[in-house]
Amino acid sequence: MGASLWIAWALIGIIGGFMVGKLISRIRNLTLAICVSICGALLGGFLFLILFGTGNTNAEVLSLVASAVVCALFLWVLTIASPKRNYDDDITDE
Questions:
Q1: Which of 49, 67, 79, 80 would you call most buried, defined as having the most Cβ atoms within 10 angstroms of its Cβ?
Q2: Is the dihedral of CA 4, 62, 41, 33 positive or negative?
Q3: From CA 65, how far away is CA 63, in angstroms rounded?
Q4: What is the Cα gyration radius of the chain?
């Protein structure tokens, strides 16, 4: 397990967090979405390799898929935990 695998997991997290931060209106903080997704991707890929071994190339490729799945799971939890955006706050009564 080399550094390139850690970088690949982190890139999966960055891409996933950026996409969710821009597409989901409930996520107010893009930086938080990216940090949560990087943590999810690193944790998912690392735990997959611990559970299924690092001996073959197939496990490393599947760890990329596992990191994307756990990243999506973390972002889903973040979306559920985020409060709904109240659009009435933007309109001021005069």
A1: 67
A2: positive
A3: 5
A4: 17
Place of tokens 């009564």: 93
Helix (H) or strand (E) holding 27: none
- Give the residue among 31, 43, 44, 34 at the shortest CA–CA distance from 11: 34
Cα torsion through 47, 52, 57, 62, rounded to 10: -60
SS3 10: helix
User: Is the separation of the CB atoms in 36 and 65 below 8 Å?
Assistant: no
Euclidean distance between CA atoms 37 and 43, whole angstroms: 10
- Helix residue spans in 24-90 (DSSP H): 30-52, 57-81
pLDDT band at 57 (very low <50, low <70, confident <90, very high): confident
